[in-house]
Amino acid sequence: MGRTVLVTGGTGGLGSAVTAGLLADDWRVVVPYRSAAELKRLPEDDKLTTIEADLFDPHAVQACVAAASGHGASPLRAVVNLVGGFAMGGRLHETPIEEFERLLRINLRPAYLVCQAALPVLIDNGGGSIVCVSAQSALRPFPGASGYITSKTALLGLAAALHAEYASQHVRVNTILPGIIDTPANRAEMPHADRTGWTAPAQIAETIRFLCSDASAAIRGAQIPV
């Protein structure tokens, strides 16, 4: 029997590498997108299903999960939450509340809604894997990104709550904590940064592939630096 994974943010700098890797592992991969231009970043593959969706809208999220779970021979067994955003700015007293709330919304709302919709399906299918993406800065903050760091710290809390609530039903929830990912968006945001220690998306994708696989069945509730 096949298996399906829902990858949000699957067309992004990290997401396109994750999507390609999971397809290579013979997953059926369902990827929501906002603009048709994003699809150019994805490989052509019979196992890839794309669906236009606004992941901040609960009804659109339900439609994505329905698309991922309506393929009878290939049950939904994994969810990868990659939607998020990063921004640098001033210190907290220099940061407008609107910017703070924007980062909370983009880094938390899609993950919450997607997990909320997908969990009943995962449970009905006998369990599976949820992978969330926080950041190393949630544990080692730096100045000028209070909204981003707060939102990524809250995501750790969400993942921990999901682990506490659903581990007994064979849903394993793990979080990876990347450093700075070497994506075009991060290069544009930090044009003068030293990129020596940045990590390539394909390297992080390898960890996500493992966490989705049955080989990671013993890893539950983990926070994994990558």
From TrEMBL:
UniProt key word Oxidoreductase: yes
Pfam families from the UniProt entry: adh_short
SUPFAM superfamilies attached to this UniProt entry: NAD(P)-binding Rossmann-fold domains
Entry keyword Oxidoreductase: yes
Source organism, top-level taxon: Bacteria
Keyword set, alphabetical order: Oxidoreductase
Molecular function per GO: oxidoreductase activity
Similarity section: Belongs to the short-chain dehydrogenases/reductases (SDR) family.
Protein name: NAD(P)-dependent dehydrogenase (Short-subunit alcohol dehydrogenase family)
Organism: Allocatelliglobosispora scoriae
